[in-house]
Amino acid sequence: MSITATAATPDLLAYLRRIGEPEHPALAAIRAANTGHRMGKMAVAPEQAALLTWLARLIRAENYLEIGVFTGYSSTAMALTLPPHGRITACDINAGFTELAQTAWQQAGVADKITLHLQPALFTLDELIAEGKSGSFDMAFIDADKPPTPHYYERCLQLVRPGGIIAIDNILLGGRVLHDAPPNAPQAWPVLQAFNAALPHDRRIIPITLPLGDGLTLLQKR
């Protein structure tokens, strides 16, 4: 038994990926394309996607909500995991990145499972609530611009069913959340500090944050 974690060196991460479920060729192709992209670091880490899809199988997810698509790694991974009748509602505002995502969905043979809403995510989330979709999603994944994270969270809490899961990426801001934000800090810094601090006191959810990627918070709705 150990009370400390083993440092996640590049060699150890490579080893862990080798002993886990093999990466689907469609996902490997997206990751390879992201490696050559100047914004490629925005993509979800493979181990994060692997955990989310593992959880989706565990709770028998059928309806998945994604806020922040980028080039489609996480949405493709989830679409490959969901049953044939499973559906993904994807939210983003960047036509260029999501064009790459749509190509990836087509190449992976999962485009029919995904509906893309190309507008500010809060508009889409409010529309879904107005349409009576509250409590209809099994999982939601928030991986978008950070200042609106609390607003995304509150909408997702309405849209996800009891027992469902909300995942939030980049919750650590590269470790900056450990330190007081200077007066000229980006808005995301104090916003995420306050958001993280509030989670243990939110009786609507059961929270856990894992040191995967830049921090992955998992919240189960009570």
Outline:
This protein is an alpha/beta fold and 222 residues long. The protein contains 8 helices and 7 strands, in the order αααβαβαβαβαβαββ.
Description of the structure:
The chain is of the alpha/beta class and 222 residues long. The protein has a seven-stranded mixed beta sheet, with helices on both faces. The chain has helices at residues 10-18, 25-35, 46-58, 73-81, 95-108, 121-130, 149-159, 188-198, and strands at 63-67, 87-92, 114-118, 137-142, 160-169, 205-210, 216-221. 40% of the residues lie in helices and 20% in strands. Helix 3 (46-58) runs parallel beside helix 4 (73-81), helix 4 (73-81) packs parallel to helix 5 (95-108) and helix 6 runs parallel beside helix 7 (149-159). The protein is built from eight helices and seven strands, in the order αααβαβαβαβαβαββ. The two termini are 31 Å apart. The model has no long low-confidence stretch (mean pLDDT 94). Strand 1, helix 4 (73-81) and strand 2 (87-92) form a beta-alpha-beta unit.
Give the N-terminus to C-terminus distance in angstroms.
31 Å
Total number of beta strands: 7
The largest sheet, given as strand count, sense and whether it forms a barrel, is:
7 strands, mixed
Mean of the pLDDT scores? 94
User: Helicity level, as a percent range?
Assistant: 25-40%
H and E order: HHHEHEHEHEHEHEE
Strand composition percent = 15-25%
Radius of gyration: 17 Å
Low-confidence stretches: none
Question: In which order are the strands of the major sheet placed?
Answer: 3-2-1-4-5-7-6
Estimated structural class: alpha/beta
Number of helices: 8
Shape: globular
GO molecular function, one term: O-methyltransferase activity
Keywords: Methyltransferase, S-adenosyl-L-methionine, Transferase
EC number: 2.1.1.-
Pfam families: Methyltransf_3
